[in-house]
Design a protein that fits this description.
Largest sheet of chain A: 11 strands, mixed
CATH architecture of the largest domain in chain A: 2-Layer Sandwich
Oligomer: homodimer
Distance between the termini of chain A: 47 Å
Number of helices of chain A: 14
CATH class of the largest domain in chain A: Alpha Beta
Radius of gyration of chain A: 24 Å
Number of domains of chain A: 3
Chain lengths: 432, 432
């Protein structure tokens, strides 16, 4: 075998990056793997648009079947994103005996289980390095590099937009809205940033990391998801004073024989390596039993960064195909010690809580009385100077307590007449 | 092919870890790769010693030829360390058609070029993930995960002992000697810590990272190496005041069409992710053209950590062998834009300099006069309060200057009557 044929579906930003790399590194890649990677066809619904790379007209089509039905194409690269028609394309590619490379975290998070099953059935592979952390080779590292390990937890800053906003708020002392506006201006946030700032994109990636580390697909509805839109500069500043940073963390971790899978703003210790991840960077922190704690860090976006991961996947598949190895090379197995998912109500966590109260005697007593009733004990209290007339922030760090108890206590506290705004509660993570 | 046979040479700490993992994860690995990994023979000069794992007596031998001459053994794992006889064992293994896994950075740094050539000639592979950063899958990440990238530089904290000592000095305000003593007590430093604290071990690993990123083997004598034994608490504290951390950094980076390869204590900005790497941890920071800057972080030592990497290599080779792919799967190519090595005299760097001078008028004028004569300009000066009677430390941050000029200027300054101790000069790195 002297060459391998690729069909690319999706000639957008990352697609253009893939084309650029395959053009400019054609010789390099051929020398490295001894096989020429030939881009045989590119499909996009808009083939007239200007793009940062030039390709021969004959390569372009608007009909995906020209790729999917071509028996000469070995690998289909899907970069259109979204669920439909991407899912149909992937299924058809696998049914036609092709290997698949995709960066489509939403699709894999939603239909991954069925797609990976189909691939196994057909003896084909789905590679998806670009779907988490763009060019950071996290999937390869966990799947192959840590092949003999069992995992206790994976903790990721996997959404660059949210991390950029939180970093900007922390470093430049600006509001959430100002930071979001700046992120849009810089092109780091989309016009509708909902998926990013509300944690959905992080949840998609977390589902894939959970699959990698624990061998099971959880569905989006089983992931507790809370975004960053309620985080205020006040909380970032208070947290900092107490030695914490606020990050949007995607967490999957074992809790005895259960698995917790959740995305939410999280206080992490300032000296933890994840605290130093700023801007649009991503980082994935993995706790494994043989190696211990590992961190993988890099830019979470960028057309060439994601394209670098796609090309690495193509190279891996090319090596497999060249070797005549027409079946998945490395099975992902379920961690059989895990008996199910832990519901968010049942998780135990320390908490940062900010109450906005009237500046009156007895307020602290009422609040701590209710917390005590639910068996929640207070690790530290700081009553801040008032900023609004008559309203004082009280910041508490709570000892580990059950989520359900916290929620019920806060409900009662929020009803107190002396409490002015709804309490802000942010989980603390320090088990890593 | 249902099984693959391994011969292990070296039943020490890491060797025991490999045996333990192959015993305890036998079923897991078999399910993942569809092939059983069988440990057929273990060779060590001392087979009577107590070890943390139990093996059948019949598995043990003191004669390496029982492994090397056995046509039934597919992969030889070499974990004895040192140059001789390890090199002979590796050569013989390759000549006998076996693949090799090794953690031996000293051997690969010294004889890697010849060994890799021999492997290529024989159509066999040498895998060496455990040789840099123990269980951190840095070699796989760079070689496979970043396969399409070209590299501008690699910057590593790759010696856990040195990093532990520097961290302890910084965090607990103790002297180099006290920190070294503590490291020995904890088992993080050997009785003779020379290779670690004088930068040789880092240089060995740097040679391998340079090979990975730039495709060329440099020899140890071409690597500028300076250890940490001259670093004083004074400098760590002054550096911290100015916003820097001192780390023993292994650096290989392109400088126009030349390559700089050096190991030395280095001031890095406090907010750089490498600054947060403390204790015996290792971290490798890679700057690549497609992805940008990446950091890989984890424990730099530990029997199971290194063994995890060895087993990952065994699995990779098993997959290759299973596929009938009896030749290296991924060539490492020389970066042809590099025309040679830049001698240390020719490198340009910013500098931190500490002079210990008499507390007299005109001292600063004499020093800055000499610096000026060599075209070296001063970015900042801090004259510290005296600690010893009559002696004041003057701390300078110099603008970028050629190493040769710095050296000549310091020689003249050291001869001044008002200068009491030899000036301490530490390079600054902020190009990453």
């Amino acid at each position: 075998m002297k060459s391998i044929n690729i069909g690319l579906i999706g000639f957008g930003t990352v697609g253009s990056g893939v084309v650029k790399i395959l053009q400019e590194r054609r010789k390099l890649l051929k020398e490295k793997i001894g096989v020429e990677i030939i881009l045989k066809k590119i499909c996009d619904k808009n083939i007239a648009a200007n793009r940062p790379v030039k390709v021969e007209k004959g390569l372009l089509t608007t009909n995906a079947d020209e790729i999917l039905d071509d028996p000469g194409i070995d690998i289909v690269v899907e970069l259109i994103g979204g669920i439909r028609p991407a899912g149909e394309f992937l299924r058809k590619a696998l049914l036609k005996g092709k290997h698949v490379v995709t960066a489509n975290k939403a699709l894999l998070a939603e239909e991954g289980q069925a797609l990976f099953n189909l691939a196994r059935e057909k003896g084909r592979s789905i590679y998806f390095e670009a779907s988490v952390g763009a060019g950071i080779p996290i999937i390869k590292a966990v799947r192959e590099g840590l092949v003999a390990n069992k995992f206790q937890g994976v903790f990721g800053i996997v959404n660059g937009t949210s991390n950029y906003i939180l970093s900007l708020m922390a470093h430049q002392d600006c509001s959430f809205n100002a930071a979001l506006a700046e992120a849009k201006k810089k092109g780091y946030a989309e016009a509708n940033p909902f998926l990013d700032i509300e944690g959905i994109d992080s949840a998609h990636k977390l589902i894939l990391l959970t699959y990698l580390c624990f061998g099971r697909f959880v569905s989006l509805k089983d992931v507790f998801v809370e975004g960053i839109s309620r985080i205020s500069l006040l909380d970032i500043d208070y947290a900092k004073e107490l030695g914490w940073q606020i990050k949007l963390l995607a967490i999957a971790k074992k809790s005895k024989d259960k698995l917790e899978v959740r995305v939410h703003p999280t206080l992490i210790p300032e000296e933890h390596p994840l605290s130093s991840i700023s801007g649009i960077n991503n980082a994935i922190y993995v706790h494994s039993d043989l190696v211990g704690s590992l961190l993988f860090y890099g830019p979470g976006a960028g057309w060439l960064s994601a394209a670098s991961a796609v090309v690495a996947d193509i190279v891996d598949l090319t090596k497999d195909i060249k070797a005549g190895l027409f079946k998945p090379t490395l099975n992902i197995l379920p961690d059989t010690s895990i008996k199910g998912l832990l519901k968010i109500d049942e998780i135990e966590s320390r908490y940062y809580i900010r109450f906005m109260t009237e500046d009156k005697p007895g307020v602290l007593a009422s609040i701590s009385g209710i917390l005590g009733k639910f068996g929640i004990s207070i690790a530290s209290v700081t009553q801040k100077e008032r900023k609004k007339v008559g309203v004082v922030p009280i910041v508490m760090i709570l000892h580990e307590a059950k989520e359900k108890n916290i929620r019920q206590a806060l409900e009662q506290i929020n009803k107190l007449k002396v409490v002015k705004d709804e309490a802000v509660a942010i989980r603390i993570e320090e088990t890593f």
